[in-house]
Design a protein that fits this description.
The structure is a homodimer. Chain A is mainly alpha-helical. Chain A is built from five helices and three strands. The structure holds a DNA duplex.
Chain lengths: 138, 138
DNA sequence: CAGCATCCTATATGATACTG
DNA sequence: CAGTATCATATAGGATGCTG
């Protein structure tokens, strides 16, 4: 299937399903980190991904493992050691994710700017409506 | 910035911010539909995107407009006509989204398969644990 | 170290009714 | 047609404490 073949775009189900999984708050960041670093332990990932809670990192990794995107290797040692890495399928996902990452880095500024303009306009409209209401009241 | 420049990957904020907006349930589908069809009215979008509620389509379009990705053109007619299309910024977003769309179409089958295998293994482990508990009890 | 279990809250989403 | 307003709910996500 080529990039110009839009026939699949008519059927949203596959895209929706994938987005429901990788579109959460942490999955893309986990895949990104594993793509960069290759193999990472649980707490290494937790340190790299700023703000993720232990619970959410666990859930995210389980989901990615379930979807065949991440491998989980347990070493029966004391203290326990668990290593995560991308599967071959996970590595292919790196490509579109990386594209999105680069787009974000390039265009985040423009988005922030657009938001500021939009919000300023909305605030002005709200103020205008207040004046109209005050005028209508008397 | 090149695709191989991973320095931006260390700073998750831009990516997180973009993902928080386009990572919701409908934004990517809206952008995809507008990218395919060029200009669409509200109810045309609603018909194309299966399952979206009026409320969520409105909210999604407002957010995309606020971020400078979608333009909203009102024609002061009766009945009212409102047309949506991608901005230039929105069109550039089409590229990484299209890549993700194609990846989904190609690899959704593998994900479904991986889930089935994972779930079967989990079920087996659960059954095994039940037996162990039964053994311990009796 | 790498988690699991529990409780709690915020938010996203949906359903429904109404409107210029 | 293209919304807005309100209510209801499911779920994502966070905080905390405990464990092998």
């Amino acid at each position: 299937m080529s990039l110009t073949d839009t026939s699949q775009h008519s059927n949203c189900s596959a895209m929706s399903d994938v987005l429901n999984r990788i579109g959460d708050k942490w999955s893309v960041l986990v895949v990104g980190m594993l793509g960069q670093n290759g193999v990472l332990r649980f707490n290494e990932l937790k340190r790299l991904i700023n703000g993720v809670s232990q619970r959410m990192l666990t859930l995210t990794l389980r989901n990615l493992e379930r979807d065949g995107l991440v491998t989980r290797t347990i070493y029966p040692e004391v203290p326990p050691r668990v290593e995560y890495s991308l599967t071959e399928l996970g590595k292919t996902l790196q490509v579109p994710i990386s594209a999105l990452w680069d787009w974000s880095a390039e265009n985040h500024g423009a988005i922030v700017e657009a938001r500021a303009i939009y919000d300023a306009r909305e605030t002005a409209v709200a103020a205008d409506n207040s004046r109209k209401i005050a005028y209508a009241r008397g």
